[in-house]
Structures are given as C-alpha cells and as structure tokens.
Amino acid sequence: MELQYVSTRDASEVVSASQAILKGLANGGGLFVPTFIPKMDVSLEDLSKMTYQQTAYEVMKLFLTDFTKEELENCINRAYDAKFDTEEIAPLVYADGAYYLELFHGSTIAFKDMALSILPHLMITSARKNQIKNDIVILTATSGDTGKAALAGFAGVEGTKIIVFYPKDGVSPIQKQQMVTQTGDNTLVVGIDGNFDQAQTGVKKMFADEDLKKELDAAGYQFSSANSINIGRLVPQIVYYVYAYSRLLANDKIKAGESINVVVPTGNFGNILAAFYAKNMGLPIAKLICASNENKVLFDFFRTGVYDKNREFILTNSPSMDILISSNLERLIYRIAGEDAKANAALMQSLTTEGRYEITPQMRQALQDFYGNYSSEEETGQTIHDLYEKTGYVIDTHTAVAAGVYGKYKAETGDETPTVIASTASPFKFAKSVMTAIDASYAKEDDFALIDKLSEISRVEVPRAVEEIRSAPVRHKTICAVDQMPQVVRDFLK
Ligand SMILES: *Cc1c(COP(=O)(O)O)cnc(C)c1O
C-alpha cells in the first residue's frame, strides 16, 4: 500500500514520499507527515540479527513506499559506508547505568550525519522519479552541525547546489572552521548578523517567496530544504532507535518486548520525534525523555501546555540546542490535535503572531509518554566531569545535557528501565567546553590545542574530520545582514 504525506496545515495537500522529500516544506508553511505511522513487519528477533544497513531498509521501506527496493538499497549503501569510522555505524557504549548511542561516527562527527549522508541520494532519486529537470538548490539555516553535515552530504553531487546560513557568533570555533573550509564549487557558506532563529526565519521566507521562486525556475533552479523539517531527514533517524533496541537484544541486555527509555538532547525536536515515530511503529519504548539546555521552552511546554518563545535567547555551550522555535514539534502538535490541520494551523498562526500558543487539556493527555527537563550550564559541566571521573568515558556538551536530565528523571521517579541516551556529538567537536568541564585549568588553551589532550585523556584517536580542518584553507568569507539573504542567494546562482 502506498503511504502518502499530508501537510500539517492543509488536509487537501497530499503528496507521495518522493514529492515530500523534494518539496521539503508544504505550501503555506506546513510540514509533511505520513497519513499513518506504519507498523514494523519484521520481528524484534529477526532485527537483532541485522546490520545497520539491513535495519535501515526494513524501517525506511515502510515510509518511502514509492521507492523500489533497488533504489532504496542503493541510497542506503551509498550513505552508510566507509564515511563512517565504524562498521556498526551507531555503536552503543555502556557507562554509569545508561547506554550511550553514539551517533557521531560519520564524516562531520555529529548526529546530523546519520540523516544527511543519505538525504542527497534520496533527493536525487526523488527528482528522477518526478521528471525534475531543474537543478536542486538546498537552502539551509544551521545552528552549527546541520550546516557542515549538509555541505558534506551535497558537495560535488551533480544536479545540486547548497547554500548554508549560520549565525556568525552562534557556532563553536570548530563548527565554523568546518563550514568555511568546505570544498566543492556547488557550495556556499554565509555568516549572518543574527541568531539561529533569525537565520531560520530568513530561509523560511525565501521558501515562501513566489517571485523568487519564479525567477529561479526561469534560471533552471528550484529550492529544497535539508533542514530537519524534511521528511527525508526524519525517516532515516527512526532507524537508529530500532537498531539500538536490536543491539541490546542481540547482546542479551534486554528480552524481546522489554521496554526501554530513550533520552534525547533536543533542539528542533527532530531527533526525539523520530524516537516517537519508532515507538508508534511498535518498538517497545516507554518514556521519551526530552532534554533541553537553558533555552528550556520545551521543558516549560511539557510542564504547562504553553509553548512560549517570548524569552531571552541564551547562548550556551550546547549551541546546536540553542533554539526557541522547535520546528518539528509541529508534527507532534498536529498528531495530538487529532490530525486536525485547521486546529494545528491556528496554533501555529498564534506562534507567529503572539510568539506563543496553549494546547487543550485533551491534547496534554496525549503527551504522557513524554518527560521534559533541562540542565543548566553548570549542571552540564558537572555531568561531563563526574562521568569522566567515574568511568573514564568523555561525552560532549549536548550529550551531557541529556545525561544530566536522565539523572534528574531517575532521582524523581526511581525508574530503572534500561535507558538509551542519544549521544549526538563527538567530544572532539566541543573540545574546549568538554576539557574545561573536566579541569578548569584548561580554560586558557584554545580548542585546537585541547584536541590532542582530549585524545590522550579519553584514549580515543583524534577523528579524521578534525584532523582535516586543522590545515584546510578558508574558502567562504561572506557575512550578510538578515535582510540581505535573498540577494546573496541570487548572486550565487547568477
Ligand atoms: C542538532 C543537534 C541536536 C538537536 O537535535 P534536534 O533534532 O534538532 O532536536 C542535539 N545535539 C547535537 C550535537 C546536534 O547537532
């Protein structure tokens, strides 16, 4: 049976999976969601014998039903190959009472690689299926990790161009260096005078700009999005929750059917939404634990039913989670609103005009599987420090936000359910914050100097992705104001 995708804001906009991947965002600003969440059709025992790639096929075939087996396997095999530094792709590491699902073994050492290494292949395949002649222009706003992972995925891919906007003071030095050294004539990296939300709003405006769309079409281009709102990002992220479960089962850590909890350090709500989809496919997940940093909009939302972005934007040491508008939350809101596009659209309209919305008591009832909490900057540092002292295992700042929240959850509930923590970045990517948390005297040294020290104390080799950028020349120097973004795009595509 063909699975269709519908806009969260307009029940009459229905497309195939490949069309949803190509469009990214629905007309009128809605997000595409599957009309139902398919159930897994292989047993947990069978899954426990599968490789990452085989698991990916079993999950993705249920969502991308207009792809042939050959097409999908081809995409999977091109994505999850030697770009990853381990054959397991996403290994589980046990430390201090939790399983860390390491999602950072791809080419940019952060979890965005899990989806962005496959998205270009899904997109090109989708373009072919839909007889698209235009080149595809990927337009992305990034708070740090998405940008580089998208650049790495799309660089040099024929028939595509990619333009990445980042907040010029809102990413780590290593994140910035990774992006501005990007090679590939089809790539452009631009710093903006503004924060991530402004960058994202600027990109959304361009997607909605009909004049710009016509102009590009005449020149043989069309926009698409690599942001986490694209269904082609979301679906590959479901895979690693299924894989994590099957690894626990294969290694006799749990029995088939036994429930696990997952803890996800959350920004745009894409990663945890994928876990929610996995649960709804039948994977035995009990609690979905949503961890925020000091930008704790989501914690407040789960506590009160009010989503309110009217607050100070805080720059933290977990910059990929410094977000006040969690775009993917809309997919959950749509679902708990009974898949009512009108009700959802009204709430999103209120978010646009008032900066806030409140859900009904009935909708709150449907959120019982979620638990939200946050870690302060101080708690995050303490978590890194204590875990290292206790076990020798070093985690990055984002993962530490999640580990800290897991500690709070356990203290509050006493719940001993086996728990998987999504480990979303390599500590090497945030070497300074991580090393300073371990020992404050490292604060004097710069990120790059600390990388070798981190390697020494963690007994982990310096990742290839970090080695590479140490010597690479800067290729992208453009900085612009938020309102100049469309002009920068026009100039690049001339
Ligand atoms: C993007 C990112 C997150 C947040 O993930 P969302 O899917 O946006 O919630 C957390 N940690 C790291 C390292 C990231 O790059």
TrEMBL record:
Its EC number is 4.2.3.1. One of its GO terms (molecular function) is threonine synthase activity. The keyword Thylakoid does not apply. Residues 101-421 form the Tryptophan synthase beta chain-like PALP domain. Its cofactor is pyridoxal 5'-phosphate. It is an enzyme of class 4 (lyase). InterPro entries: Thr_synth_N, Thr_synth_N_sf, Thr_synthase-like, TrpB-like_PALP, TrpB-like_PALP_sf. Coiled coil: none annotated. Gene3D superfamilies: 3.40.50.1100, Threonine synthase, N-terminal domain. CDD domains: Thr-synth_2 (cd01560). It comes from the Bacteria. Pfam families: PALP (PF00291), Thr_synth_N (PF14821). Keywords: Lyase, Pyridoxal phosphate. Residues 4-80 form the Threonine synthase N-terminal domain. Belongs to the threonine synthase family. PANTHER family: THREONINE SYNTHASE-LIKE 1. This is Threonine synthase.
